[in-house]
């Protein structure tokens, strides 16, 4: 699911994926399943500044919106759409007229549209478990301790 929903285009989990967004293996221990779901359904509600995209207005009138990958004294390297696998754009600072924080997350909405409810729950369990299949979240919801003769 992590791959199907394209999470892998921007996130790393268990050493797989791309580190454009947050490495999901290193989530805040206080993160709840509802937080993860909210972040996926409405990515723009709460954007960590580290992963905020910016709108650059060039002197030519061109608008470039994207995530800053790297900044040097003379240039800014920006990725416009991580899902499109496009090459980052290098903007010359001397040609940037204006730079503003974008109110919209670079993380697209609707990522879960092609998943079923079960798949969404599995995906969130996977993220919460940091990709560890032995994690308690994967041991089935009917598990009440050390097998009291339950037959699954």
Notes on the protein architecture:
The protein is an alpha+beta fold. The chain has two domains: 1-46 and 107-138, Cytochrome Bc1 Complex, Chain D, domain 2 (Orthogonal Bundle), CATH 1.10.760; 53-104, Roll (SH3 type barrels), CATH 2.30.30. The chain is built from two helices and seven strands. It has a five-stranded antiparallel β-sheet with strand order 6-5-4-3-7, with no helix packed on it. It is elongated. The two termini are 24 Å apart. The relative contact order is 0.20.
The number of domains is: 2
Q: Give Rg in angstroms.
A: 19 Å
Distance between the termini: 24 Å
* Lateral strand order in the biggest sheet: 6-5-4-3-7
CATH fold name of the largest domain: Cytochrome Bc1 Complex, Chain D, domain 2
Please outline the major beta sheet.
Answer: 5 strands, antiparallel
Mean pLDDT, to the nearest integer, reads 87
SS elements, strand count: 7
Under the CATH scheme, the architecture of the largest domain is: Orthogonal Bundle
Order of helices and strands: EEHEEEEEH
From the spread of the alpha carbons, the general shape counts as elongated
Strand content: 15-25%
Identify the CATH class of the largest domain.
Mainly Alpha
Helix segment tally: 2
In helices, the fraction of residues equals 10-25%
Structural class: alpha+beta
Unreliable segments (pLDDT under 50, ≥5 consecutive)? 142-152
